[in-house]
Amino acid sequence: MIHWTDKEKIIKDYKKSGATVENFAPTRNISSSSLRNWLKTYNLHGVEGLKNKKEKTTA
């Protein structure tokens, strides 16, 4: 499982890259659908949305 801080970094790098999701995702060894889901969650809920349930209860 990818830690939320890694997801946040990937999202920020993606936004800076100007690449498409399909071109960027493989450079980070993730699927395009995962990146799209993370982006949607990040846009709706911010960094807190990227955390899994265990991380939300302990943070």
Number of strands: 0
Largest sheet data: none
Main structural class:
mainly alpha
| pLDDT < 50 stretches | none
- Written as H for each helix and E for each strand, in order along the chain, the element string is HHHHH
Radius of gyration: 11 Å
Tell me the number of helical segments per DSSP (H or I, 4 or more residues long).
5
Q: What's the overall average pLDDT, rounded?
A: 93
What distance separates the N and C termini? 17 Å
Q: Approximately what portion of the residues adopt beta-strand conformation? A: under 5%
- The helical percent reads over 70%
Note the overall shape: globular
Could you characterize what this model shows?
The protein is an all-alpha fold. It contains five helices and no strands. The protein has helices at residues 4-17, 21-24, 32-45, 47-50, 53-58. α1 crosses α3 (32-45). The longest helix has 14 residues, at 4-17. The radius of gyration is 11 Å and the shape is globular.
Write a brief caption for the model.
This protein has 59 residues and is an all-alpha fold.
Keywords:
71% helix, mainly alpha, 5 helices
